[in-house]
Amino acid sequence: MCRNGGSSVEPPPSVRDERDSTVSDLSTLYQRNEVFAATFDKGYLPITPNLTTVILTCIDARVVPAHFAGLEVGDAHTMRTVGGRVTSRTALEISMLWMLASMQAAKPSMELVIIHHTECGMTRFANPEVAARVTERFGSNYVVDTYAITDLAESLATDVARLRESELIPRELRVSGHIYDVKTGQLTKKIETARIG
Question: Of 113, 111, 53, 61, whose CA–CA distance to 82 is shortest?
């Protein structure tokens, strides 16, 4: 429940796991938002972020850029996909962000920071038995081929290669690859920053 000044106490994981699956946590989100909005003073911020970085990372609840990278409201665009993987849709959205940036500056400066993380759920998709089930569920190999992770360094390299192969991505875009350790909170660079073109 609300952690900031509220009287309710959030149940421990063992209790939450036993709750009725139909119970919604939406009220919790609104309680927390009331605390946030009560002192919010960033309404003056422009659409253009403070930093030139665009962060692409996983949807995993343990992987929160605002925490591990110390981001404040208005600092950076953040994109999240399953596994933090680059897909055709991701490439389209990056291209859209570049277009928005080009409306603000003749020569946009943008670095895509791709962050994969340890203990990612997509490593399970690399398991042959799980991969077979996923392929049967979706009717093709697309999901496994696109999202499965066997090695984090390799998955980062693959995603950078996907960007280079995409006709939508501007050649001036800079990209780098990183791994976030969910156990230590440490971010480690694996691919140095370089232009796509």
Answer: 61
Q: Is the pLDDT of residue 147 over 90?
A: yes
- Which residues in 39-120 belong to E strands, given as ranges? 53-58, 77-81, 111-117
From-to residues of CATH 3.40.1050.10 in the chain: 46-195
* Residue owning tokens 């993987």: 85
Closest CA to 115 of 172, 187, 185: 187
Closest C-alpha to 148, from 164, 167, 133: 133
What is the C-alpha separation between 78 and 169, in angstroms, rounded?
17
* Torsion angle, alpha carbons of 91, 136, 83, 142, to 10: -20
d(CA 173, CA 197): 8
Dist CA 137 CA 115 (whole Å): 28
Q: What is the mean pLDDT of residues 73-92?
A: 97
Residue 148 in contact with residue 91, Cβ under 8 Å? no
User: pTM, whole model, 2 decimals?
Assistant: 0.86
Architecture of the 46-195 domain: 3-Layer(aba) Sandwich (3.40)
Give mean pLDDT, residues 109-135: 97
State whether residue 175 is helix, strand or coil.
Answer: strand
Local structure of residue 84 (DSSP, 8 states): G
